[in-house]
Design a protein that fits this description.
about 0% strand
Length: about 325
């Protein structure tokens, strides 16, 4: 791979230019403006970048698949637009969410069009590869929705098993990372075994990422985190940390934890301090770090067993993933 093609900055810039230059439609403006708006809010573009880097393990001309890679990002943002409505979230990446800036009905309809446009972008795939890519995309899309429904179901449940939680984050978050990597490999004509290993790599890393998000919400450096530390504690969100604490707490510890979960009126800082102290007593941080590391190690083992792809591209994808693993926000 030539030096400029191995430059992450260049790949990201090519991707961003492609995203910002794409026309989703023009009339009625109220339907299409929200799509351009959410796509302009940025983000790390991790999913399409993984597709491009996975492709680059086997071929140099990543520019040829910018549109199919963008389909992964458009689908991801479609899910965010609808998730924000379900969560009644006021902000996305520091800006007003679409349903806040316009209204919920517009956000639903614009999201629907985004999904349609994602399928349009997939039509750029080689016709010989299109059936398998569509089947995998459809399977992934359904699993993401299943994961979201499980997450909503958990809100009404008194207790959730560790296995059920891990499976929920696998579906809601990790399978799309796995698909992004497998998709790029398929488009590059990679061996089938490599494509599946890249999928498993993405899924395991994705589960680890979500566990790290759970951990950072409680234990991140406030200055680096960029949002309120302890937000999950305040909202009683059933994260890995809370589920593990509920399973392991005993006696007065258990009683205090249940009291904080049940109380309706409270001082936010006091609740975060109190619940974090219970986590500390039980050793929840190290338990979560071990579980997180288990999935990261599984993923990197799959990655290491690939059949000799391009070395430079291999090193770049490995570094990008490692940087995400090591992030502090």
């Amino acid at each position: 791979m030539s030096q400029n093609r191995n430059d992450i900055g260049k790949i990201l810039q090519d991707l961003e230019n492609h995203i910002q230059g794409f026309s989703y439609g023009t009339s009625p403006n109220e339907l299409y403006e929200p799509i351009s708006y959410i796509m302009s809010l940025g983000g790390k573009r991790i999913r399409p970048l993984l597709t491009l880097l996975s492709y680059s393990l086997y071929k140099d001309d990543y520019q040829e698949i910018l549109t199919p890679a963008m389909a992964v990002e458009v689908f991801h943002n479609f899910t965010l637009m609808h998730d924000d409505i379900m969560d009644n979230a006021p902000l996305r990446r520091g800006k007003a969410t679409v349903h806040e800036k316009w209204n919920a009905n517009t956000a639903i309809l614009s999201g629907d069009v985004m999904l349609v446009r994602a399928y349009d972008m997939l039509l750029d795939v080689d016709p010989n590869l299109l059936p398998i890519c569509l089947r995998l995309f459809n399977q992934t899309a359904a699993e993401v929705c299943e994961g979201q429904q499980h997450d909503m179901n958990f809100e009404k449940m008194g207790t959730v098993s560790e296995e059920a939680y891990i499976d929920m984050i696998r579906q809601k978050t990790a399978v799309l990372l796995g698909f992004a990597l497998e998709f790029g490999a398929i488009l590059a004509g990679a061996p089938t075994d490599d494509a599946r290993k890249l999928y498993e790599f993405g899924v395991n890393i994705g589960i680890g990422f979500q566990l790290k998000d759970d951990l950072l919400d409680v234990y991140a450096d406030k200055e680096k985190f960029g949002k309120q530390v302890g937000g999950d504690i305040i909202s009683n969100k059933k994260t890995f940390l809370l589920l593990k604490a509920k399973a392991l707490a005993t006696g007065p510890q258990k009683e205090e934890l249940e009291n904080w979960i049940a109380v309706k009126e409270f001082n936010k800082d006091e609740k975060v301090r109190a619940v974090t102290a219970i986590y500390d007593q039980i050793g929840i941080k190290s338990i979560t770090e071990r579980k997180m590391q288990e999935y990261f190690e599984k993923g990197f083992a799959q990655f290491a067993s690939l059949n000799a792809p391009k070395e430079e591209a291999f090193a770049v994808l490995l570094k990008i993933t490692q940087d995400l693993v090591d992030r502090e926000r």
